[in-house]
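Question (not urgent): is this output format expected?
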Amino acid sequence: MGKEPQTDKSEVRDRQNQELELISWMGRILNSILDIDQVLTVLLSEVRNLLNVTGASIWLKDKESDDIVCRQAAGVHVEKVRGYRLKQKTGISGWVAALGQSVVVSDTREDSRYDSGVEKKMEIEFRSILSVPLLARGKIIGAIQVVDTAPNRFKTIHQTLLEALAGSAAVAIENAQLFEELQEQTDILLKTNVKLELEIDQRKKAEAELNKYRRQLEKKVKRQTVELDQSWKALADFKGTIKVEHRFGKIIGKSEPMQTIYTLIRNLADVSATVLITGESGTGKELVADALHANKQRKDHPFVKVNCSALSESVLESELFGHVKGAFTGAYRNKIGWFQKAADGVILLDEIGDISLDFQKRLLRVLQEREFERLGDTTTLSMGARVIAATNQNLVAKVNKGEFRQDLYYRLKVVEIKLPSLRERMADLPLLIIHFLNNINDDLNKKIEGVSPEVLRILMAYHWPGNVRELQNTLEHSCIFCKNRTIVVDDLPSGFPGHDSLHDQQHSQILPDNKETLLKVLEQAKWNKTRAAEILGISRRTLYRRLKEYQI
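Got this back:
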């Protein structure tokens, strides 16, 4: 009896550590995004997942009128309140933004501060509200609010978590607002600059103003990064593991597409139906096959993996079906094939889209009749293994071209598990980074703790054609060359495309859009291409590409 309270405390502490780790990662992700709408969208999504609430909204102060305006909202009915405006001390958010104190409303029917106009706008009654202020360097910039249809929904722990997240969120929001404001000013100055006459004194003045604002931007962003680094260090002692619901066997992911995959695997655990796993190269098709084998009834039976594209057709046929002595030249003894070795377990036919039409015919009979003969033998053997096939090819297109049998395709596709590309589940990138760094640290005997904010921005901006496998290889390369405990840009593989693409994306608004503009900037820089690229805020590679396009 005396140990139970200690166990409860341990469970609470573990849960708090995991939640604080999530908040820390959220702070990093938010700081890596400079678009204000994207910051708010990501923030509200994570808040709803963290607190499991009906809806959430962000209210920001209007600098001109000092009203508070709902800038972003998420959830059924709640999104209707986007753009709604409240006066100071009007509504729950208005009170929080005015006084800078969190408010917990257990029942809106009994709180006179609740604004009924919000309820009419949303066309639904919310009974519980938790609203906390957004504070950036001691200044109230707004409030973050969560709502639920049930009364007495929010407790002290919910308030503590939301306040912790609001600290990092406020810095990220102000950072994005600052970037938006300075970008507008930069655009104005650039447009003014290209319209000026060729007089040197006017050009120098415009360039000086442009550089001034750029320096301000760099200084502000650098200060914001330092502030967030201090927040990360304060949470560094709260170490935790990846949550159980964010992994399935060796598969890592918390995104909605991966949760759907996990559900499919669980549903297929107790059945013997043939499964077709599809997806781009590097998405983890073999890991899904491993999970299907390890789940329940067949986990204690053999698991045979066959790469159909790695063997010639004759060798593949011998390896799969087996042969008897003398079946062909070189068959000096009997050989048991993989179908027979798999017994009552699982056999994975990887790269199934590469087998020939003739071989497809033999494979179809095995799947239909569940029996086969070894090469050179007339004795029929039964096949009790579950068949899983995998491919990165479009089998439907191959069927339409006559390159793949339609009957075999439908026999394989009793159930299809289509794996998303890494591009389609970028929310999983931080978890994958943690997972791979832990594994690589063990292999290389290193103690790398994470990646720098700049590296995180680069990795988040990259399109990952090689998917999770490419991410793993990139991190392994970076860890080998990393001399400290944090991976920085210089540790990334040479020529990694994410850096240039991110740089050009951030400055896409000031790219020269015509030949005349580019010529003026080149003349201003006295035809120094490096200096011209700096004025335009683009890489030299992009400048040379534009010179080639305009035949300059």
